[in-house]
Amino acid sequence: MTVIKTDICVIGAGSGGLSVASGAAQMGAKVVLIEKGEMGGDCLNTGCVPSKALLSAGAKGLDWDAAHAHVKSAIATIAPHDSQERFEGLGCTVIRDHARFTGPREVRAGDTTIRARRFVIATGSRPFVPEVPGLDEVPHYTNETVFDLAEKPKHLLVIGGGPIGCEMALAHRLLGCEVTVLEAQKALGKDDPEAAALVLDTLRDKGIEIVEGAQAVRVRDTDGRIEVVTEFGRVFTGSHILVAVGRKANTDDMGLDKAGVETADRGIKVDDRLRTTNRRIFAVGDITGGLQFTHVAGYHGGVVIRPTVLRLPAKARTDHIPWCTYTDPELAQVGLTEEAARKAHGDQLTVVRADFAGNDRAIATGETKGFIKVMVVKSKPVGVTLVGKNAGELIAPWSLAISQGLSLSAISGMVLPYPTLSEISKRASGNFYSPKLFENETLKRVVRVLQRLVP
Hints:
Blueprint: E1 2-11, H1 15-26, E2 31-34, H2 41-45, H3 48-59, H4 64-78, H5 84-89, E3 93-95, E4 99-103, E5 106-109, E6 112-121, E7 125-127, E8 155-159, H6 163-174, E9 178-183, H7 193-205, E10 209-212, E11 216-222, E12 225-230, E13 235-238, E14 240-243, E15 247-249, E16 281-283, H8 294-310, E17 322-325, E18 330-335, H9 338-345, E19 349-355, H10 360-365, E20 371-377, E21 380-388, H11 391-394, H12 396-404, H13 408-412, H14 423-438, H15 441-453
Parallel strand pairs: 1-2, 1-6, 2-3, 6-16, 8-9, 8-14, 9-10
Antiparallel strand pairs: 4-5, 5-6, 7-15, 11-12, 12-13, 17-18, 18-21, 19-20, 20-21
InterPro entries: FAD/NAD-bd_sf, FAD/NAD-binding_dom, FAD/NAD-linked_Rdtase_dimer_sf, Pyr_nuc-diS_OxRdtase, Pyr_nucl-diS_OxRdtase_dimer, Pyr_OxRdtase_I_AS
Protein name: Mercuric reductase, putative
GO molecular function: flavin adenine dinucleotide binding; NAD(P)H dehydrogenase (quinone) activity; oxidoreductase activity, acting on a sulfur group of donors, NAD(P) as acceptor
């Protein structure tokens, strides 16, 4: 048995774990990085990268084989940045095995025992597969396996109408598959209803069947065809099933009880500093049970670097975290939705908006579907909903504004190249100030007096 003593032991080589490992190692800390699966985690291998590559390939009109070749090429191009070789070059000791705590300050991985001053758990999550009768008796796919399909499905049944389900539905529709999405409640139900409706209507216009209130209660194989029976007796038939109903934290067989680390319903229990119930052990990313996005895991990694490496206090926050569903049109959000903002701020809230149909670049390119909605309290944005072309890119300055507590004047005062879609943010900000300037009778009287005073 080999024993390694180190400053920091990171368990999991996804976005969060790699952020901690690279930052700590480059600052001079001794780091052990443990990963039992693929370096780069879910995002690189089975999540963000392949899904966006497949969507792009479909939008470009590539055929099935060329699209999947593009997916593999994208993964292969990015992989060296997350590779074992790169992290060993940064000074990390990389162990490719399953990690299990054997005590509050000790982990075993294969035939190696690691004793560290601090531990960071970054084991992420995996697809949650519900216990639907018959589902385990038919071939079914998740985001971990769907990109390995050798042949194009004739008719893909997607169980789950959240972001992953809608993105994969669109990708496969663009590649020529028939697609039916079955959602137990409301599709894209966590997003602004008006924005979600625009996206869903567009997906339906592209030929995707989206059925809401369709809880799957049984799955069966009938003469080589797969049938999904919903709770009200409707039956949907297809050739393949993709399950996209959520994620489950990877806490299995980690010996967390021996480390004094408590879990909650959705993952490991952490405080606002991302510390677990063992103060020497931190957790980042999906494993914490909060927002499950790659960029959140990376952000968590940056927060944890401060106390583990620099011994400085740091707290994680969520009010400035953006997210995007990469459908066509895209749907992006940062901060509070209109509904949440009204509940939180009541009469203090002002909602301003602008439509893509009024943006000159959108008109010139024929991409006029969409809008921006900004929730404002005391001249500061507390939430922004963007739906339209490149919404994921356009949300960036709003994430900055909310993060830094900027007022809308910072956005309205920007000078932007013309014509660009970014002007829609400036237009929305201007719509907040316009009534104060152009519908203010007192101001108009003052201006008239000032004009008379000028010779």
